[in-house]
Amino acid sequence: MIPESLKATLSKWKPEDVRDAEEGIPKVLYINPNACNPTGVSFTEERRREIYKIASDYNLIILEDDPYYFVQFGDMKDFPPSFLSMDVDGRVLRFDSFSKVLSSGLRVGYVTGPKPLIQRIVLHEQVSILHASSMSQVLVSELLQMWGEEGFFKHTQAVQDFYLKQRDAMIEAAQKHLTGLCEWAVPTGGMFLWLKVPKVPDTWDMIMERALQKNVILVPGKAFMCDPSLPCNYMRAAFSVVTPEMMDRGLECLAELIREEIDLQETCSVD
Fold it and tell me: What's the CATH code, domain 156-270?
């Protein structure tokens, strides 16, 4: 999220008029600040403070969805501050998850924020899903009691170390096979590599129709776009469970696929 773009979008309304909550004015701002899916990048502290100031000016509630907090790479003391930690207006609801550090199947998370907002969430839960799976909640509770705070952070460090090794293996394979075919930024955390294919205007057909023939599974970038009807030359690769050997072979096959796609498009263009 680019603060200047956010402000430009909101500038159609005057900040002094927003407090009247006229119809059509945005009320909430959803943010995935750390190692976000699909790009694997994190907001800098400066950008967070700029975005918080804009949210304050336009009276937006910030939904800080941060499931990848514990799988950022580096020393936790150096992680950028959360939006919740800089909140002075009572406008931030922070959502954390155990699914990335304990087990994806648990689907258990927790929310932290101002009491009036939390109370409304509780009421909504009571008339919708009641609560998360009791079995999952018990498993998490017992595990945390057994580990204690020290044990939990020891575990999250091990998870981070694992994903860091996976990322490095993925980057090595990408440099070996995709240099000149794709562009990417090195993820600051998480489990995904966001690839741009400059010479393929839209990766959808390439991935959905032809990649499986080479035993390659990625997610075309269009799946992450606000408007999926527009072409997108990005795609997301995951390095969460595959071995370095599988990454190397997979990206080698992907490189073959991209070259074939470029040749196919050039042939169609000539025809």
Answer: 3.90.1150.10
